[in-house]
Design brief:
Elements lengths: L11 H15 L8 E7 L2 E8 L12 H17 L5 E12 L6 E11 L4 E9 L5 E15 L9
Antiparallel strand pairs: 1-2, 2-4, 3-6, 4-5, 5-6
Length: 156
């Protein structure tokens, strides 16, 4: 299905990537996190974000909710970069906490693994500012009933 260009001056695949980046920025949950999504190519996503003391649990490291959110988002957007007509939904996600996250800049890198019809599998890793992996996850995502073009924020 061909979509109209949602971003002036962009076309095809690039327009879809920019529209997904806009969708990410528009999600109310993302007002709670200083983060930026980039989709450099089909099947890949990068989210740079700041881990802050407000995300800590009682022992002084980032709570697992931040691990899940950023890993799920990175894997999701890597998968949804391959789907231009429908919003995907997370159906399962497995997490591995490798190291505690301390304050600072973190990068979530998502990568599509398999699936091209109804179910997609993608993985993501979290890397701290020293280049150390601090978390990893794998998710499954399926097409929803929601058209991307009907979602507020898709395309700016």
């Amino acid at each position: 299905m061909t979509q109209p260009d949602p971003i002036p001056g962009a076309s095809g695949e690039a327009a879809h990537f920019r529209a997904l980046e806009s969708l990410y920025r528009s999600a109310p949950i993302n007002r709670m996190f200083r983060s930026v999504l980039r989709i450099p190519e089909a099947g890949r996503s990068i989210i740079d974000f700041d881990a802050e003391e407000g995300h800590f649990h009682a022992a002084g490291a980032v709570h697992g909710t931040l691990y899940f959110k950023m890993l799920d988002d990175a894997a999701f957007y890597a998968a949804n970069s391959l789907v231009s007509d429908r919003f995907l939904l997370t159906t399962a996600f497995n997490l591995l906490f490798t190291r505690p996250i301390r304050p600072g800049r973190i990068r979530a890198e998502g990568r599509w693994i398999s699936g091209k019809r109804r179910v997609y599998v993608a993985e993501a890793s979290l890397v701290d500012s020293e280049g150390e992996e601090v978390g990893r996850g794998t998710g499954t995502f399926m097409r929803s009933q929601y058209s991307l073009s009907s979602l507020p924020g898709y395309g700016g």
